[in-house]
Amino acid sequence: MMACRVFGALAFGLLGSTAQAARASAASVEQTGVRQATTQAGRQRRVSVRPEGRLRGGADFGSNASTGVVIDAGSSGSRVYVFRWEPSDPAGTIVELASLRIKPGVSKHARLGGAAAAAQSLLPLLEFARAQPGVQPAETQVHFMATAGMRLIEPALQRDVLAAVEQLLIDSPFLAARPGARARVLSGEEEALYDWLSVNAALRLLGGDPERTASVTDLGGASTQLAFATLPEHVPHEVALARFGHAHVLGVSRLGLGMNEALANMLSGPSQAAMGSCLARGARATSAHGVELEGTGDYDGCRTAIRAFIEQYEARRHAGARAPPTMPSNGQWPLYLFDNFPKGAAILLNATDVPTEQALTLAQLEELGRAVCAVPEDAIRFQRPLGTAQERSPCFLGAYMVELLHGLYGFPLSPPPGSQVGVLKFVAELNGFSMNWPLGAMVFEAVYAPAAGVACA
Ligand SMILES: *[C@@H]1O[C@H](CO)[C@@H](O)[C@H](O)[C@H]1NC(C)=O
Ligand SMILES: *[C@@H]1O[C@H](CO)[C@@H](O)[C@H](O)[C@H]1NC(C)=O
């Protein structure tokens, strides 16, 4: 029987966080559930395979190279990532070999078919990872990490799903990760910290001067995260602070300020009457409480409504106290933005594709948002088909991104002379990596967890 501390304060070198308790409890799962060793074909909606040789850094791996697998269980789908690195320098040599996404997410499978069905839905992802050249399953650690979709399902079902997935991974040909890091639900703060590790690993900035690291923010459907390196004495005690090498990294997450949640809550809360300003001129909608909304396409009015909504949110979050400043002071690198940020930028830019890398100032983003709000409903067309309801409210989207970055986080509209603060880099991909938290999770497991003595015997 293995015995060790679960993933928690020790692993992150956490100095203080309200997230600790949640993390510790999420990490302890009971080992019941399915035994499953066979495979089955699954529906694979989107495949992206990266030929190893095209990636930057360390395409020539020695015979000792390590591989690792992270399954990102999101609310709308699950995605597997296969990584490879040299054990002598994991952060400096890691590459993303391949990734595959399937729909729907495990939380939906769990609701429809129970925990066993949710676990089995992952088999095509394990099969895919196993089939990658250079992957020796017996030497490849596999991690399952879930985000908002799994946070929202009822605790008993969540526990059963995690137990079933953990058993599936133990029974699979892959190397079982250390207990506590096999199957778990990430807290928002962990997501923020992994975001930071992802961007700085992709930029090859880990292990160097903390002052010379990039800040990062992501906008999900349910929550939004921000992370940057700072000095511990500048950090209010209610936020998560982790130490990676010499860098103290602050990670904050705001559940409820993700794009979908914010729009849904604004349409049903005290701000609903003001929401007409966020809809294109001529658009009509009915709010959750039956208020008839008529679009006025008023960018400034929309910003005001959003500001009031965020202020109410912050007042609840900080119980009336003034919110701590959350803007990074480090001016050497731009802010890297991913998830719905680049998707939103693609809409505002009227681009056909989500930009892999696109730099804009906040002033430019504001100009784009203002222009989109000014187009009447019957005239608005985009090159990129608008998917979700949120994307179909582009006037809201632009105003919301600007209000979050400028109003809430305090980034300036234009960078001060000689500074990158206020330069926004919208990244769907960065140096050959899909930009999202799994790269950071893998780097954590390869570099920081062993160094912190988290491995169990
Ligand atoms: C692989 O690891 C062994 C043992 O640590 C070491 O002696 C050897 O030089 C390594 N080989 C390569 C190609 O890095
Ligand atoms: C987007 O580009 C298309 C094609 O050039 C154009 O017809 C459309 O009006 C543009 N939409 C906006 C909102 O600028």
From TrEMBL:
Superkingdom per UniProt: Eukaryota
Binding site for ATP: G221, A222, S223, T224, Q225
GO cellular component terms given for this protein: membrane
Gene Ontology biological process: nucleoside diphosphate catabolic process
Segment forming the signal sequence: 1-21
Keyword ATP-binding recorded: yes
Family the entry assigns: Belongs to the GDA1/CD39 NTPase family.
Official protein name in the record: Apyrase
